[in-house]
Amino acid sequence: MIQGRTWVFDQVPYIKSSAAVGGPFEAKGPLADDFDILHEDIWLGQDSFEKAEKVLMENACEYAIKKAGISKESIQFFLAGDLMNQVISSNFTARKLAVPYLGLFGACSTSMESLALGSLIVNSGFASHVLVATSSHNAAAEKQYRYPTEYGSQKPPTAQWTVTGAGAAVLSQEKTPEGIRVAAATIGRVVDMGISDPFNMGAAMAPAAVDTIEAHFRDLDLDENAYDLILTGDLGKIGHRIAADLLEKHGLKLSPDKFDDCGLMIYHESQPIQAGASGCACSACVTYGHVLNRMRKGELKKVMVVATGALLSPISYQQKESIPCIAHAVVLEKREGEE
Amino acid sequence: MSKESKKKLTPVQLEYHHFIKSRQPERPVWKNCIIAFLVGGSICLIGQLISTFYIHMFGFDKESAGDPTVATLIFISVLLTGLGVYDHIAQRAGAGTIIPVTGFANAMASAAIEHRSEGFVLGVGGNMFKLAGSVIVFGVFAAFVIAIIKVLLKTLLGGA
Predict the structure, then answer these.
(1) Is residue A148 part of a domain?
(2) Which residue in chain A is spatially nearest to B12 when comparing CA positions?
(3) Domain range holding B111?
(4) 3-state percent breakdown (helix, strand, coil) of chain B, nearest 5
(5) For A12-53, how does the pLDDT look when each residue is reduced to its tens digit (9 = 90+)?
């Protein structure tokens, strides 16, 4: 069923299993217990950062499949994306999985883009098991988007730290004992507020998140208490504050304990992250690890995750283009009486 | 953001830029300048100590001591880059570690390390000057222009 630009999934898909994989920096963060695998070396025993990122995604996918208790062959479609040029981490993971694959790019919004599309496929009945995954690697992203990792540049207080990690989930038509399912998804549109500083992604992406959240609330005619938690993907300190203020200005006042940002949750404030965390893996790890764990425990019943993505390239910002941004929202729901 | 690019913004975008202005931290320019001055100065002081060491211990004169001094500073900088320490110092020191010769060495070494995974020729060789290249290009060009001005002035003033 479609309402405005929101897909409402009536019965399925259920989240059969999920996995989150992280690196050493994530292991020092407050959500360390919610990761399934934490690597102590950013190289993961590989000889390049790109290969390390691929291993992160492979780990997450393998673990999610294993936890689902199904065979690899039961996965009918694999939807994945990452930040690397030509989405290589996903392509190479798909090579190993050898299942029908759709590669996606939505920058850091890919986590929810893939979850939304995967849910659509399962809900439509065109598949009974779909695997979705996203990954990012701090050093690989720095190398591609900014400077060499060991280069001594001074990052401004608005900069963010790309998460090293990967998250994956298996979507299924079968009812699970946990009863966590994807209830709805709102597809974002590209919003560009003319911010051109690649070290200020939070401020660039906040309007896209606001646009999608407002569209979602309008489409489904909801009030501010509709969700136990609304999480933005990786707006960081600055973007989160701007988003909260913008929403309030537009008449949607979310209480601070119900509106948070994945980029503010994954690390301690004492870690050298400037304004917060970012990257595809940021929202993926927090959602597929921490949030789903809390839902399984019954602490949260209805959560909306709004993953935000900055659709720039290193060339586009050198050519002085501003940063187009997008946000996709997915609603996760634990159904009453399905414990 | 420059005035020129601000002109191209739509009214909605301009309103947003105004909206976020008070909601984001500015770069602490003055603090950065002072730290850069202190750290940059300290690196120069270390350089001076090394230079004095070479003059007194190895019999270099004031001018010829420059080469081994620079080589020593470059070696230390590359070593710290390789050990993964330099970028952490630079996050605090800013221009203080970029402007001296140590920053140039760091720019080259970091790019070389980063692109080692793409092989020696296309990786290390092709990318080593990715950041340092513009310093060389514009450094050499500036020297060329200044040299021409010097020659012109000399000819004009000398001929008069």
Answers:
(1) yes
(2) A193
(3) 3-129
(4) 80, 0, 20
(5) 899 999 999 999 999 999 999 999 999 999 999 999 999 999
Residues of A with CB under 8 A from a CB of B: 47-50, 143, 147-158, 192-197, 200, 202-203, 206-207, 238, 241-242, 245-246, 272, 320
Predicted model pTM? 0.93
State the pLDDT confidence band at A10, using cuts at 50, 70 and 90. Answer: confident
Question: Judging by beta carbons within 10 Å of its beta carbon (0-12, 13-18, 19+), is residue A251 exposed, middle or buried?
Answer: exposed
Contact call for B110 and A152, based on CB within 8 A: yes
- Per DSSP, the residues of A100-116 read -EEEE-BTBTHHHHHHH
Choose the closest CB to A47 out of B10, B117, B131: B117
How far is CA A199 from its chain centroid? 20
pLDDT tops 70 at residue B131: yes
B77 & B54 share domain: yes
Distance (Å) from the alpha carbon of B123 to chain A's nearest alpha carbon: 12
Q: Would the CB atoms of B27 and A47 count as touching at under 8 Å?
A: no
Instruction: Based on the fold, state whether residues B51 and B13 are members of the same structural domain.
Output: yes
* Shortest Cα–Cα distance, A199 to chain B (Å): 11
Helices of type H across A163-253? 201-220, 236-249
Closest residue of chain A to B92, computed from CA coordinates: A154
Contacts of A37 (CB under 8 A, 6+ apart): A19, A21, A22, A59, A60, A63
What's the domain range around A51? 2-172
Residues B139 and B93 in one domain: no
ipTM over 0.95 threshold: no
Please give the average per-residue pLDDT across A168-188, as a whole number: 95
In chain A, what percentage of residues exceed pLDDT 90? 96
Side chain identity, residue A171: L
Please tell me whether the peptide bond between A13 and the residue prior to it is cis, using omega within 30 degrees of 0.
Answer: yes
Which residue among B91, B98, B111 sits closest to A148, beta carbon to beta carbon?
B111
Residue of B nearest to A50 (CA): B117
Tell me, what's the pLDDT at B8?
A: 80
- Give the length of chain A: 339
Together in a domain, B142 and B116: no
Of A150, A154, A202, the CB nearest to B81: A150
Same domain? A137 vs A227: no
The H or E element containing residue B102 is helix B101-114
Q: Are A236 and A112 in contact (CB under 8 A)?
A: no
Q: Which of chain B's residues have a Cβ under 8 Å away from the Cβ of A50?
A: 117
The Cα–Cα gap between A201 and B23 comes to 14
